[in-house]
Amino acid sequence: MLLLAWRRKPYTSDVMVQPSAKGDNGTVHWAQSEDLPTSGIREILDLALQMPDVIRLETGEPDFPPDPAVIDAYCRAAHDGHNHYTSSWGIAPLREALAEKIQRVNHVVRSPQEILVTPGGIPALFVSFMGSLRPGEQVLVPNPGWPDYLGGVQALHLEPVLYPLAAPDFWPDLSALQNLVSPKTRALVVNFPGNPAGSIPGPELTEKLVAFAEQHDLWIISDEVYDQIVYGRPPLSPAVLAPQRTLSVYSFSKTYAMTGWRLGYLAGPERAMESLNRIAMGLWSSVSEPLQYAGMAALAAGGPGIQTRLGHYRERRDLCLDILRSRNIPVQAPAGAFYLLVDISRTHADSRTFALNLLAQEHIAVAPGSAFGSATESYVRISLASSDNDLAQGVTRLSEILAGG
Ligand code: PLP
What we know:
single chain, 405 residues, alpha/beta, Aspartate Aminotransferase, domain 1, Aspartate Aminotransferase, domain 2, 2 domains, 3-stranded antiparallel β-sheet, 13 strands, globular, binds pyridoxal-5'-phosphate
């Protein structure tokens, strides 16, 4: 087997960015193009924030507080003097606890030296893209997929190539992948359980995806931020099958209801992680020290809180499915994550117009399917992380509208 090429050289003066040239009109040239994607979810969110009494079903934010032990641990760490820079890798006891978690939950064996603590899942993805690809190279990104992949990919001057996840299961289409891969392709992004469809392919398909990555010598960037929000069989992590070519992205945001705390972690083979750590040094230096202690408390409190929240998401999922199905609205039960994709094709409206009208006329905020790519143009996404009340009211009204009421 070919040795997988790591794209990033150590930082030396030859990779230093040169000062920007002045533009014709005397303004300093701005290197970043203005056509970086904006989020179709944010458009709805920003409008919803300006309106009173909106039923909020658009964002993926748990409506639960973090475990009190996590808040206590943060305060205690700050009082105890843990208010300093740490190693850019993260503190040793947290990395040890994360190695234990990854083995127990994800069945991936990584040493603590192969784990980098990050300020959330987004930066973990960003450094993965940065390390595994050079500008102009291609990365395969799911459609539908979480919109922020494109922001990171394009900001780094990489070329996203969208591959379809086919309805109704929204699993990766292998033959489409084979047609899309090119000599410029260096990485494949997978996301199970997925946002927006909550899909989890069976292990056979994951094995085929890994074989595809091996055949074309690709890195697998495996976004597993919903790894503990699973309603049935958990996904098979690609790192179990191909630890030397997989970078696994994890987060405290969803599992521990800690979105605003900004804590995540990245696991991969040691030689790649060494390089990613150097990138991390230049980006965030180190993650907040008291936050890392809070992360240890979250891992220690673990089980019961996670199970309680999961139980709520499951109840909400089943409630919404009942409401929608009672009016014959097509909807697929998600296997994981906390979203539901609702088919709006019977309205013949595009999803953005539908979402804007639903907000303006009914004061219900949903995420338009177009925000996740063309494959979900005739869907809207509702978040089961919204409050019980909002979900019951909002989904009932949505189903009445879709049923023609
Ligand atoms: N990946 C997916 C699929 C997501 O849905 C999100 C957040 O919504 C993230 C990554 C980023 O999570 P965070 O940066 O909060 O850890």
